[in-house]
User: Fold TonB-dependent receptor plug domain-containing protein from Flavobacterium chungangensis.
Amino acid sequence: MQKSFLIFLSLLAVGCSNPKVFILNEKEESKYFVQQLVSTAFEKDLIGESPLIVINGIPFKYNKKQDTIFLPLKKLDIITLDFINKNSSRIIYNEKENDGAIIITSKNQK
Assistant:
């Protein structure tokens, strides 16, 4: 009975936390490179829970309710990865619900 209750509480906690995981298009451990940087920016309150993703100047829309966000890049393709705070990103990208922005510049600019 206790084990069932603990499993239920664990599932409830994970389901309600709604973490965001950013995964690159790689099979190695470097696929979590962006996730580590985003977690650090989130801890420093640079971005909110649903930041806008901008790749080479193009805003990348995603479902804010999904837990995992696959980015169509590899770590070697990324030149820079910067963050814009919540207020600045609202002004630049004119998004009312914007929680900051992750700005990615890659080698493959089309």
